[in-house]
C-alpha cells in the first residue's frame, strides 16, 4: 500500500512537556484517515507539524514521498489543502471576494474556484460578507478554499464543526467521494459516528502517543464484544461467581473473546445454569474508543 503521509518518531515538546511523542503515522493513499483522540492528545499539533506550521522537536515527516520541512514546504503546499482550527476568511469581505484572493494568491482559474464553491454548496451565499456567515457557512468556505487547488492531500481539523445534520452528511459524502477519486483525506472530528461512517483507516492518540493505527476491522478485532447469555435463571449464574449485569434476556458480560466464551459455557454447564442462547453485542466506535483511551472525552 502506498502511503501519502509517513512519520518516524515524530515528537513535539514545549520545555519539559511533551505533547506529541514518537508518532509513526502511515496514511494510505486514496483513503479517508480518521484521526481521533481525547482533548489535549496532540491531534492539532500533529496536523500543524505535517503542514510545516509547527517545527518538530525531533523525528521525520514525509508527505507525498518527499520530506516535509521549511525548505520543501513551498513545493509541497500547492498539492495539499488544509483547514486547521478556525475557518479562514476576511469578515469584512464577501465570500466571493475571499475566494478571489485565494485564486490570485495561488494562480488558479475561475473554473477551479467555481467548482470548489459548488462542491460545498455555497453559491447562493457568495455575495454576503463573511462576518454574516454562520459557523457552518464559514466551515464550508474554508473547505472550498482548501479544495480550490484540487489537492492530492486534504488535512482537515473538525471540518463539520458548526454544521447542521444535513450539512454534516454533505461534507461526509464529499470527503468519501474525494477519496474515491484518489484524494487522500486526513480528518479529525469529535463526532465519532461520522468518522465511523467515512473513515476506512483510523489513528487514535492518547496523551500524545499513537495507541492504535489500522482499519476499523482491526480495531474491533482488538476489542472483544460484550456477550448476552440468554437464561431464565440469571440469579443462579450470578451465584456461581460470574461478574455480569442483569438484562431482559438474562445477563450481559463484558469483553468476551472466543476462548473466554467457551470457558464461560463450561462454567455455566458445571453449575447447572440453563442456557437458551448466546449473542455477541456489536460495539460502537465510541465504546471502543472510550475503552482504549481510558474513557476520556474528545476535543
Summarize the structure.
The protein has 299 residues and is of the alpha/beta class.
Fold and architecture overview:
The chain is of the alpha/beta class and 299 residues long. The chain folds into two domains: 3-220, P-loop containing nucleotide triphosphate hydrolases (Rossmann fold, 3-Layer(aba) Sandwich); 224-282, Alpha-Beta Plaits, CATH 3.30.70.100. The chain has eleven helices and 15 strands. The strands form three sheets. The protein has a six-stranded mixed β-sheet with strand order 7-8-9-4-10-11, with helices on both faces. Strands 1, 2, 3, 5 and 6 form a five-stranded antiparallel β-sheet that branches. Strand 1 (3-14) and strand 2 (17-23) form a beta hairpin. Helix 6 packs parallel to helix 7 (192-198). The longest helix has 16 residues, at 165-180. The protein is elongated and about 80 Å long. The mean pLDDT is 89.
Give the C-level CATH assignment of the largest domain. Answer: Alpha Beta
Binned strand content: 25-35%
Give helix and strand order, one letter per element, not per position.
EEEEHEEHEHHHEHEHEEHEHEEHEH
Taking all Cα atoms into account, the compactness measure Rg is: 24 Å
Mean pLDDT, as a whole number? 89
pLDDT under 50 segments (min length 5)? Answer: none
Characteristics:
elongated; alpha/beta; single chain; 299 residues; Alpha-Beta Plaits; 6-stranded mixed sheet
List the helices and strands and how they pair.
Layout: E1 3-14, E2 17-23, E3 26-28, E4 32-36, H1 43-50, E5 58-63, E6 66-67, H2 73-76, E7 80-83, H3 95-106, H4 110-119, H5 135-148, E8 153-157, H6 165-180, E9 184-188, H7 192-198, E10 201-206, E11 209-215, H8 216-221, E12 226-230, H9 234-239, E13 245-247, E14 250-253, H10 258-270, E15 277-281, H11 285-292
Parallel strand pairs: 4-9, 4-10, 7-8, 8-9
Antiparallel strand pairs: 1-2, 1-3, 1-5, 5-6, 10-11, 12-14, 12-15, 13-14
Helix pairs in contact: 3-5, 4-5, 6-7
Amino acid at each position: 500500500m502506498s502511503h501519502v503521509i509517513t512519520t518516524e518518531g515524530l515528537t513535539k515538546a514545549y520545555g519539559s512537556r511533551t505533547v506529541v511523542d514518537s508518532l509513526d503515522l502511515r496514511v494510505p493513499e486514496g483513503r479517508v484517515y480518521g484521526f481521533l483522540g481525547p482533548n489535549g492528545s496532540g491531534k492539532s499539533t500533529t496536523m500543524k507539524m505535517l503542514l510545516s506550521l509547527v517545527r518538530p522537536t525531533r523525528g521525520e515527516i514525509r508527505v507525498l514521498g518527499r520530506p516535509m520541512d521549511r525548505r520543501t514546504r513551498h513545493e509541497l503546499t500547492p498539492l495539499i489543502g488544509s483547514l486547521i482550527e478556525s475557518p479562514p476568511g476576511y469578515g469584512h469581505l464577501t465570500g466571493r471576494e475571499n475566494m478571489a484572493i485565494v485564486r490570485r494568491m495561488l494562480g488558479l482559474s475561475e473554473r477551479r474556484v467555481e467548482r470548489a464553491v459548488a462542491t460545498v454548496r455555497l453559491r447562493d451565499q457568495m455575495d454576503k460578507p463573511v462576518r454574516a456567515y454562520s459557523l457552518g457557512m464559514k466551515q464550508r468556505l474554508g473547505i472550498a478554499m482548501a479544495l480550490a487547488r484540487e489537492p492530492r492531500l486534504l488535512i482537515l481539523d473538525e471540518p463539520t464543526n458548526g454544521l447542521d445534520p444535513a450539512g454534516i452528511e454533505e461534507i461526509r459524502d464529499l470527503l468519501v467521494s474525494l477519496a474515491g477519486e484518489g484524494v487522500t483525506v486526513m480528518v479529525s472530528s469529535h463526532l465519532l459516528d461520522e468518522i465511523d461512517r467515512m473513515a476506512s483507516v483510523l489513528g487514535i492518540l492518547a496523551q500524545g502517543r499513537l495507541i492504535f493505527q489500522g482499519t476499523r476491522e482491526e480495531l474491533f478485532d482488538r476489542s472483544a464484544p460484550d456477550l448476552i447469555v440468554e437464561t431464565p435463571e440469571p440469579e443462579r449464574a450470578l451465584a456461581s461467581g460470574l461478574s455480569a449485569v442483569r438484562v431482559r434476556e438474562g445477563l450481559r458480560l463484558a469483553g468476551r473473546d472466543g476462548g473466554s466464551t467457551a470457558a464461560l459455557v463450561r462454567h455455566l454447564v458445571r453449575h447447572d445454569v440453563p442456557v437458551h442462547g448466546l449473542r455477541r453485542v456489536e460495539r460502537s466506535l465510541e465504546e471502543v474508543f472510550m475503552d482504549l483511551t481510558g474513557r476520556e472525552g474528545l476535543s
